[in-house]
Task: inverse folding
């Protein structure tokens, strides 16, 4: 690193403005990741694809982001700092415009991969520059809080902006707005950055592009299996089998290349540290439990029949909770409260949210009924996120810190992907089960079913429908009611199970040392070892 890194910014730029510019430009990654997934239903209908396809496109972007982190530092050290950022943000604005006029799904995926690269390239350099503005331990906590506050809080704001644009303007204006955001970043960099370098120039040679390709293939093929497995009936599909084979083969080649290569892009020694393994698993569990929030949004839209703008507005309660949780997490970290207490508290609050929401899966609720659990969910997320990042990064020696950071990103990626897969499969299986069970009680031969059908038919006849049409509408209404009730029952069971699992995790984290001692005592008594 060049010693006088303060020369990256022009002399007249005050410190507070530097921090603002860096945090603002880091939101670029969140715009790239969230603009199409902020309104999945509308985005999928525009591109004439299924919601699973749009979820896969999100994973393509995030997976490419993860793979690019392995080679990003070499590119940053080669190009001049200011030019590096200007090119990235300018390309991002062009990619947004192109994607706005793309209705071909394959081309859309290619553009999403490009967005993943453009999302990864400035993320760590911007964070490095942000770190240079602070030196103390508490300041490091503040930097991580700012960094990941942008990650957590950007998505709800993007969702609300997207819904407003879609309600008042055409779809194209959403991508235009995203492109303008990138150009604002270009303007801020032009105004505040000098032409000085942050690192000494390092030539672009001996970059392990083969490892980049191998890990990218493994990520994309593994994601394909998780996202489309249920839809394609898992291993009855040749595509799923082929994707799994390519995933395992490319991952095996990647691991061998890192273990035996001269210049590995990832050092697997990080997994020899127990705290890193724990942090990795906690990230996966955390993101799986966060995936249930999409079930709440789906319920609002399909069962409670809320408008998209209202659903988007509900996100602000979650944002409020995120803010409270991150402030509490920062205070706890500054007070040096042990991580296991913070984790236990966070997962306990997440369990409260799940168990509370179990009682809200009814045909209709008021907005006031969901405010408290939504805020609690936000507090739990804010309370867990930064401490888990710091716990994972600090669990290894400083020379391995970049690899631990990549491991944390991998945990977040696979947690969100596996979470989507679990929720999708659980909902499908449980809905089928409940539809079958409920249909046994609504057979036309039963007295209750006959009475209900007669009542509904009479209601439709009273509205002016012919007898035959009224009967068909009555049957259709009962079928819809059975489907809706099955959906709600499935959600109740999913939230109940996850709530109990999170309680168990919270207790395990809190009493981990005591449990370990109890196991050792038990082993000594039974086996004498």
Result:
């Amino acid at each position: 690193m060049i010693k006088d890194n303060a020369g990256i910014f022009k002399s007249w730029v005050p410190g507070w403005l530097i921090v603002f510019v860096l945090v603002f430009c880091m939101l670029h990654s969140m715009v790239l990741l969230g603009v199409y997934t902020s309104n999945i239903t509308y985005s999928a209908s525009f591109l004439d694809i299924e919601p699973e396809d749009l979820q896969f496109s999100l994973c393509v972007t995030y997976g490419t982001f993860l793979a690019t982190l392995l080679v990003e530092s070499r590119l940053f050290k080669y190009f001049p700092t200011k030019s590096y950022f200007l090119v990235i943000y300018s390309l991002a604005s062009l990619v947004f415009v192109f994607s706005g006029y793309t209705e071909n799904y394959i081309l859309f995926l290619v553009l999403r991969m490009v967005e993943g690269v453009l999302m990864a390239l400035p993320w760590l350099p911007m964070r490095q520059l942000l770190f240079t503005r602070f030196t103390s331990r508490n300041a490091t906590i503040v930097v991580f809080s700012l960094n990941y506050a942008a990650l957590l809080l950007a998505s709800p704001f993007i969702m609300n902006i997207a819904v407003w644009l879609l309600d008042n303007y055409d779809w194209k204006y959403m991508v235009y707005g995203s492109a303008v955001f990138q150009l604002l970043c270009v303007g801020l960099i032009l105004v505040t950055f000098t032409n000085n370098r942050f690192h000494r120039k390092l030539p672009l040679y001996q970059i392990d592009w083969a490892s980049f390709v191998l890990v990218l293939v493994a990520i994309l093929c593994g994601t394909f299996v998780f996202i489309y497995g249920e839809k394609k009936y898992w291993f009855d599909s040749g595509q799923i089998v082929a994707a799994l084979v390519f995933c395992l083969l490319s991952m095996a080649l990647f691991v061998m290349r890192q273990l035996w290569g001269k210049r590995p892009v990832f050092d697997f020694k990080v997994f020899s540290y127990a705290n890193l393994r724990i942090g990795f698993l906690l990230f996966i569990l955390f993101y799986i439990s966060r995936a249930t929030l999409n079930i709440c949004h789906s319920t609002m839209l399909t069962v409670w029949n809320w408008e998209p703008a209202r659903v988007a507005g509900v996100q602000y309660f979650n944002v409020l909770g995120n803010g409270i949780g991150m402030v509490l997490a920062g205070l706890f970290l500054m007070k040096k409260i042990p991580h296991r207490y913070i984790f236990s508290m966070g997962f306990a609050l997440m369990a409260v949210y799940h168990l509370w929401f179990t009682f809200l899966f009814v045909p209709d609720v008021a907005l006031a009924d969901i405010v408290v659990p939504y805020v609690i969910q936000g507090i739990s997320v804010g309370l867990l996120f930064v401490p888990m990042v710091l716990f994972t990064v600090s669990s290894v020696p400083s020379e391995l810190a970049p690899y631990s950071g990549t491991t944390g990103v991998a945990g977040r990626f696979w947690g969100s992907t596996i979470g989507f897969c679990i929720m999708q499969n659980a909902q499908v299986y449980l809905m089928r089960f409940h539809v079958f069970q409920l249909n046994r009680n609504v057979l036309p031969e039963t007295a209750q079913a006959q009475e209900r059908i007669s009542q509904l038919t009479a209601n439709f006849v009273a509205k002016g429908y012919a007898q035959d049409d009224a009967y068909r509408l009555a049957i259709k209404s009962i079928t819809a009611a059975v489907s809706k009730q099955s959906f709600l029952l499935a959600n109740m069971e999913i939230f109940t199970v996850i709530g109990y699992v999170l309680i168990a995790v919270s207790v395990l984290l809190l009493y981990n040392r005591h449990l370990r001692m109890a196991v050792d005592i038990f082993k000594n008594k039974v086996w004498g070892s």
User: Anything to note?
Assistant: The chain has a mean pLDDT of 79. The radius of gyration is 26 Å.
